[in-house]
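Q: What would this chain look like folded?
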Amino acid sequence: MADEMNATKSPVAKQATSVVRYHEFLKNYTDDAGTLTAEQKCAKLYDNWTTYEQDVANASYNGASLSTAMLSELCPDKNISILDCGAGSGLVGEKLRAEGFTNLTGNDISQTLLDIAEKKNIYKKLVCCDGGNVAKLPFEENEFDALICTGCVSPTAIRPKAFVDWTRVVKPGGVFLLLARHRYWQTDLTNKWPKLGFIDEFDTVIQDLENSKKVEMIFKRVVPDYVEGTEGLAFAFRVL
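A: My prediction, written as structure tokens:
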């Protein structure tokens, strides 16, 4: 634990600048039994990741561009209200703004990253809160026309249970789009993530939402060259 705590001073210092290896560190840290909750540990890690944007760029991260292109495909109206869930430093917001979307709200678990995003002047409102592992997000019912979540749905960050409240804050007829690493949904024996119950939780939540007529899937799409040359997996849902 001592080594892990030291590493939080520069989260990628001992892991080179690879987002993949940093994510391994995040998993180990959030799994550790301590006085902080997993969400508090996650916030602490990102608050101390001072080279975040440079490290993401070095990892050939294309998630922001890819998810923005898909949301533009789903939502041609540029005036819609969008929640960027897990906005971080505003990488997705920058791409959305470049596509002509201006009614943007962002939330993230890290105030440090949100401070970076605020300086970019691309969001109407930024809220520091857990991205969805809470019973209720601090937003009104039917507040948004769309929600986009890029790179945050994972076994150690925003879990699929968050989708339930996403259907509350997105208007009927609106959409939510998520894009993450494809490997989180792969069940080969070398993949440790299924052991955390991510796939089962995802399937259960989606099935419950579909069976209760709260959402319908628009598409499930494998996306090449998501980050560090690896595939991403995107899901789009319409709120009913």
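The two ends are 46 Å apart (CA to CA).
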